[in-house]
Design brief:
Length: 272
């Protein structure tokens, strides 16, 4: 399959301002869910870049080398913009540095445990599957961001397009360097279990912490509200489950789900 070009779009989003409190349709739970995920990006995406670039010398295909460059640029800009995003929403309550420290602790633990570069790349592939899955959900359901403050809708769609564009880069590098046979498959699956617990666990934790700090704590929001958003409406976790499970197929590849039509549909909005 011919992948779309991986094209970094260097945009600065205007996200600050009191009028953007509860930017997601006035819904504090939905806002905190997305903000809680945003907290993970600056550290996460820096880790993804490092784990892919580590293997650049093993790549000879000029097309994949160009894709690695595109991936690196896109993730670098995402990381920068989500830092700005996180700073903007911190004004509504919550201590972003404290939440980020929990993810940094996971990264530090990998170093302490002397995790292999292959395992770190497998983790990156797993997280990239999460971001691609959520990105494709955002793009395939235009109503998902309906009612969102326009600049926040714009940053999330921008991020979604680029995650879909570069979704196979880490995986194609993995295919070149992975341990042979069953060992490689088991490492990939183990990394997905770890990534799932970190992504789901920490984004939920962050959402709860942000809700509490913003004055919306309590069971109704932090437990029922989050479960309702994840499982019922819009039901992101429920709807993406089949896509998630596809990762466990031995012959999985990110482009077995063709998302080029979704990228094409939105990308013109970001052309200079
Ligand atoms: Fe990204
Ligand atoms: Fe990514």
């Amino acid at each position: 399959m011919n992948h779309p070009e991986i094209k970094p779009r260097n945009i600065k989003f205007a996200l600050a301002g009191e009028d953007k409190r509860n930017w997601f349709g006035g819904n504090p739970v939905a806002t905190a869910m997305l903000d809680g995920a945003s907290v993970l990006f600056p550290i996460g995406e820096t880790f993804f870049i490092e784990s892919v670039v580590h293997f650049r010398d093993r790549v000879t295909d000029p097309k994949l080398l160009a894709e690695i460059r595109g991936f690196q640029q896109q993730e670098g800009i995402h990381s920068r913009e989500h830092r700005r995003y996180n700073k903007a929403v911190e004004a509504f309550g919550g201590n972003i540095a404290e939440l980020e420290a929990r993810l940094q602790a996971e990264v530090d633990k990998l170093e302490r445990d002397n995790a292999s570069p292959e395992y770190k790349l497998a983790l990156t592939c797993a997280f990239e599957h999460f971001t691609a899955m959520l990105a494709e959900h955002v793009l395939a359901h235009p109503d998902f961001l309906e009612g969102a403050e326009p600049e926040f809708a714009r940053i999330w769609r921008w991020h979604a397009i680029e995650e879909a564009e570069h979704k196979s880069v880490a995986y194609d590098v993995w295919n070149l360097v992975k341990p042979k046979g069953l060992k490689g498959y088991l490492m990939r699956v183990r990394a997905m279990f770890k990534a799932t617990s970190v992504f789901v666990g920490q984004s939920r934790y962050n959402a709860k912490a942000l809700l509490a700090a913003r004055g919306y704590g309590g069971f109704r929001n932090t437990v029922l509200g989050i479960a309702y958003f994840s499982l019922i409406r819009p039901g992101v976790l429920r709807k993406t489950l089949p896509h998630y499970l596809a990762y466990f197929k031995p012959g999985f590849h990110p482009w077995q789900t063709d998302s080029s039509h979704l990228i094409d549909k939105y990308k013109s909005a970001y052309e200079a």
